[in-house]
């Protein structure tokens, strides 16, 4: 009987330990994750303070974190430019007109008096602001020579998320190999939709036209004004004619120098005589 009672006692102790360890694992170790709130620029967003519990004696503060910490809500009042475009909703903040400058990490802090002193509870919120692209800057050369490498560039610095780029020629969208993820290619050009470059490895007269670029993300799209690129063939006959003319001029100059040397115009005696004559001329006058 004594052995059975001991055995039962050991089993009960083991069960208690298993339950206690399991409870500690599920409830005592886990930590809340930061909230991530996404908002479109110029629309509204609500920064929610979830974890603290509101009481009559609670004191609330909202701060924006970064290189320097700034108050958003302090001493029962909104601060900075949030005064005119935000309002309090219990412990949460409703921003009526979100701008890209509002993006960042925020923290609400609630302190409540207790028997042990002040109890501080915190909640962190990350605000991500989605922005439509601006008008992209487009670099299109005015002219190019047939057979050369030409690169057109398109870039936007405002869009969030980063936009993808599409090029148009004479208002028609340029389409390449749809099987490629980043680069689209065909027989005459290579288009990178991530970086916005359009490269002609061997540009031809058929590539002449008006080019424009569109930047697009999930919020919107903008297109730059079209610019014309003129591709001309290399004028071989003109270059040969120019080379021939230059060669003739050099030959004529060389013949003239040789003729002058044979006649003695560049001899030392003639030069000294000319110098002596120039020195005696003032005395004779």
Beta percentage is 35-45%
Whole-number average pLDDT? 79
- Order of H and E elements: HEEEEHEEEEEEEEEEEEEEEHH
Distance between the termini: 156 Å
Supply the number of helical segments.
Answer: 4
The largest sheet, given as strand count, sense and whether it forms a barrel, is: 6 strands, mixed
Structural class: alpha+beta
Radius of gyration: 41 Å
Described by the principal axes of the CA atoms, the overall outline is elongated
Q: Please provide the count of β strands.
A: 19
Helix residue percentage? 25-40%
Low-confidence stretches: 16-31
Features:
19 strands; 285 residues; 6-stranded mixed β-sheet
Describe the protein in words.
The protein has 285 residues and is α+β, with helices and mostly antiparallel strands. It has four helices and 19 strands. The strands form four sheets. Strands 10, 12, 13, 17, 18 and 19 form a six-stranded mixed beta sheet that branches. It has a five-stranded mixed beta sheet with strand order 1-8-7-3-4, with no helix packed on it. It has a five-stranded antiparallel beta sheet with strand order 9-11-16-15-14, with no helix packed on it. The longest helix has 27 residues, at 2-28. Residues 16-31 have low confidence and may be disordered.
